[in-house]
Amino acid sequence: MIKKPFCTELYNKYDNPAKVTLVEHLLNEGHELLNEKENYNADIATEKEGVTYYSEAEIKAAWTDDWPTTWTEIRIPERKKRLLAKHTENLKFYIFRKDLKQCWCIDSSQLIEDNLKEARGRNIYKGEKFFHIPYKEAQLINLAQ
User: Fold this and answer.
1) What is the structure's pLDDT at 123?
2) 32 in a domain, yes or no?
């Protein structure tokens, strides 16, 4: 698996704001927080109506306003496959706009091998693969700020 090396600077800049915003959203949706401590598993574990949910948060820094319709898909890195192996159900990925006013919610069931392809971009290593999810198949969530 080819992947971009871990960048502490980007992690420190974006990880906590994404998680805080996601926790706030999930609590507003009636979830009870079980775990948000970094354990290299899913970012957030919650419970709602007796069911445990796992959520992964990420900020897409290039997304700064309304979603550009020329971006036909949302990309989730292949390295997230490790979460699919651990959580076979109730796993969701939340991709936030840079200002945290909107996010896309993608169910893990959408991350299938047929959607795993090489991607190109200025911050993507040659050969790096991503799950390509058509944005029309994701749920856009508007967040109160």
Assistant:
1) 76
2) yes
